[in-house]
Amino acid sequence: MRPTEFALGCIIRTCGSLPSVNVGKQIHTHIIKFGIDITGYAGIALRDMYTSCGCMDSAKKVHDASSNKGIHACTKMMVGYARTGLFREAWAIYAQLEEACEQMDAIIDLLQVAGSVASISLGKKLHGCVFRHGYETDHHVKTA
């Protein structure tokens, strides 16, 4: 019996919330074995699981192989990098989002991460971006 992409994606999501990267890696192996396309739900779940578990090298491999590189995918990668102390990588993704004019959600997510990991340097950079883009009056930005 062949598992579906959705069933494997649900299992992977559970691994990310535990976090249980070893079980998630085993499921990733099954995804490869069964030839399941990682550009859909299973790929999103894999990337999210790896970022939640702090395995950014694996998350990047899945992210790079996926065609799903929208604002939510990039923000998840950016937050994962920031939470693991890889601020340069997080900032590089932010710069890509800024070029695409999709930075408001990214700023909010990064502000929350900067506060939770007590990164003053990242917080100062973001503070500058908030004012440069005129977001200082936005309620969501102010509360982040």
Automatic annotation (TrEMBL):
Keyword Repeat: yes
Record keywords: Repeat
Top-level taxon of the source organism: Eukaryota
Keyword Transport applies: no
Molecular-function annotations in GO: RNA binding
Example GO biological process: RNA modification
Cross-referenced PANTHER family: PENTATRICOPEPTIDE REPEAT-CONTAINING PROTEIN
Protein name: Pentatricopeptide repeat-containing protein
